[in-house]
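Example record

Each entry pairs one chain with its bound ligand, glyceraldehyde-3-phosphate.
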Amino acid sequence: MPLVTTKEMFEKAYKGGYAIGAFNVNNMEIIQGITEAAKEENAPLILQVSSGARKYANHTYLVKLVEAAIEETGLPIALHLDHGDTFELCKSCIDGGFTSVMIDGSHHSFEDNIALTKQVVEYAHAHGVSVEGELGRLAGIEDAVNVSDKDASYTDPDQVQEFVEKTGVDSLAIAIGTSHGAYKFKPGQKPQLRFDILEEVEKRLPGFPIVLHGASSVIPEYVNIINANGGRMPDAIGIPEDMLRKAASMAVCKINIDSDLRLAMTAAIREHFAQYPEHFDPRQYLSPARANIKSLVKHKLVNVLGCNNKA
Ligand code: G3H
Ligand code: 13P
Ligand code: ZN
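Structure tokens for the complex follow.
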């Protein structure tokens, strides 16, 4: 099976009241852990690559690894550019075999965001590729860009219809209180999401797939293992899983997860070295890291996203 686009995945997810997991990938072990989990759960997948991942691992290596995963699993997998910030980057991924791209114009004015997104949509659609746009601005860290809480802003539901009509995007990322990275809420702060905004967006765009970025739960067990084995992570708080399940039952069809994968991998490696300080073969510590990613992703597919047995 070749790489697929997100179109059919989103149509089924919207109707079925579940979401597709969009997992960030940076190397072979991460791709293997995620795709082995999806195979066992018979789940469709979006594997996404940030510009940082592309710089780290190289475009061709990542595409070939994802193609190998498709050959091994036979699953419907879409390969997506996460947070593309220029037309040139999106074009390069489209030309290089991706089946979906995000153009993140959320740092621009509404008008400039529309113009940039429309330019990407025209090129992408001419090549059979789907496009995700973004309205509203999430707090947190993406690549080298750190958006402070005061610069973050919720999506304005009054703008979504005009944005979608004028750009022709296939899905829309919105800001309802999630944020990137491991420190989403301050210690003592109660995690909250603006479900009222999501409901309003759903009313304005019936049947249209919505995307949630910054959706890691920052699983406390991993942070505890990291800190019990030499790590020094301050209090880290993520999005409660019941909120993600609720979003998945609404218009949210794609849920982005990266930080939880990083924590799962780091926790396994730190725990391994605490137990076997004499080890130096990367296979010895990358095997438990890959296994931990697999069990995390199985948990997300079944208990959070609800997309198991939907491939
Ligand atoms: O939203 C950002 C993703 O977690 C990707 O992170 O840009 O450090 O690869 P990265
Ligand atoms: P997290 O940092 O919450 O995993 O978000 C990842 C993300 O939104 C990637 O685009
Ligand atoms: Zn994101």
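Residues 81 and 93 are 7 Å apart (CA to CA).
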